Each structure stands twice: as C-alpha cells, then as structure tokens.
Amino acid sequence: MKPVLKLIRQALVEMINHIDSGDTTENEEELNEALEAINKINHGTRRYSKRYLCDYVLHCSESCFNTYLSMGLIPPGYKELGFKELRWSKKDMKAAIEYRKTHS
C-alpha cells in the first residue's frame, strides 16, 4: 500500500473512532466539507436535496429553483434509493450559477 494511502486510512480510522465515541467538535459546515473531500477521493457523485442547493449553493428560494428548472438551467432531478424527493449534484447547478452571476 502506498504511504499516502496508509496516512489516509489512518486518518479515516481515527475519524471513525471519534464519531463512534461521540468525541467530535466539528460544526456542520466542517462536516460537509469533510464529506465532500471523502466523496471526491472515493470518486462518488454526491447528490443534494433542493433545499440544500437553494440554501448553500444557489442562495435562492425554492420558487427561484423551480423557475430555473422550468427554464432548463437545472436538469430534472434524480431518484435515489432511500429518498422520496429528487436529488441533484452540484455539477448540475453550473448553468444556474452562471445565470445568477450574469443576471444579478
């Protein structure tokens, strides 16, 4: 195993131990950043709810999100096992983000 992979593994094991013991002090923003980094390493495509994307990515209302959806700036959402609502990736928001930048 490569030395860097050993370090990543060790850090993840330590993180799991802290989580299991309830000994974590990270806030929600830090935890979200950690999750994104882990997903990036794992080549996973993280999907988010409409509410999350409105609040933290697009900084808009749900009705504005729906408008972008009807304009075709946001693709139709994905059904994901275990979730009733549709989900999107941050990459799906690219056109809407650009639109917001040019029309603000």
Characterization of this structure:
There is one protein chain. By secondary structure, the protein is an all-alpha fold. It is 59% helix and 0% strand. The chain has 5 helices and no strands. It has helices spanning 3-21, 28-41, 50-58, 62-71, 94-102. The longest helix has 19 residues, at 3-21. It is elongated and about 45 Å long. It starts with a helix and ends with a helix.
Structural topology:
Elements: H1 3-21, H2 28-41, H3 50-58, H4 62-71, H5 94-102
The outline comes out as: elongated
Q: What count of helical segments does DSSP give?
A: 5
Q: Report the structural category.
A: mainly alpha
| Radius of gyration computed on alpha carbons | 17 Å
Instruction: Assess the beta-strand content as a share of residues.
Output: under 5%
Unreliable spans are none
Sequence of secondary-structure elements: HHHHH
The helicity comes to 55-70%
- How confident is the prediction overall: mean pLDDT? 88
What is the CA–CA distance across the termini? Answer: 50 Å
In total, the number of strands is 0
- Major beta-sheet overview: none
What structural keywords apply?
single chain, 104 residues, mainly alpha, elongated
Outline of the structure:
The chain is mainly alpha-helical and 104 residues long. The protein is built from five helices and no strands.
